[in-house]
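Everyone, describe these C-alpha cells:
***
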Amino acid sequence: MNERSDLCDELRDLLAAYAIGAADDDEAKRIEAGLSDCPDLAEEWAALRGLDGEIAGRVRQVAPPPHLLGTVLQAARMSRRRSRSGLGWAVAAAAVLLLIVTNVFWLSRPSAPALREMTLPTAAEGEATGATGRVIWTADWGEAVLIAQNFPELTPDAAYQAWVRRGEMLLSLGVFRVDETGRGMLAFDATLLGDTFDVLGVTREPLNGSPGPTSDPVVRWQSS
C-alpha cells in the first residue's frame, strides 16, 4: 500500500471524530488538507454532512449510505483490539454515529435488526458525580457499545470495568479508561449479555481488571 493510501486510511479513522467536533486542532487541519487528496475520504465526509443535515433539519428519515454503517460497525469491532488504556476518539465518535444511525433509520424499518438500548444511572452507593452510562447492542450483529459520561478521572494505575450478572453468573465485559472530561467507551461482544440479565454496572478496578468487582459501582442498572 502506498504512502498516500496509508495517509487516507489514517485520516478516515479520524473522520467520525471530526464530524462531531471531537477532533483536536491538529487532527482537524490534517483532515481538511486531506480532503482534496483522498477522494474516498471526501465522499465519506459528504455523506456524514448530509446525514447530519437530515437530522438537524428534522426532515423525513433517510437511509445512511451502506458503507457508512459498515464503517461505524467496523470501528466498534476494531476498538476491541485497541489498547485498553487509550480512548480512541474516532471509535468513541463512531459509537455516537451509531446512535444517530439507529435513531433515524434502522429502528424505523420492519426488517431492522433487534437493537436494544439502556441507560445506567449513577449508582445509589456511588460518588455523587452525575456519572451515566449508555449501552446499545444487537444480538443480530453481535455488537455492543457502552458510552460513559461524567465519570471520575482515574489514576494511571486504574481503569473502569463493566460487569453483567445473569442469575448467579457474573461476567466481565471489559475494561476502559476515560479522558479528562470523564468520557470513554467500551465495545464488547453482545452475546455476553444473553437474552436477559439482572444487573449491569461499572466499577473502578486495577488497570488490567479484576476477577470480580472490588469497589462500589459508579453506574448500575438493575432489573426491577
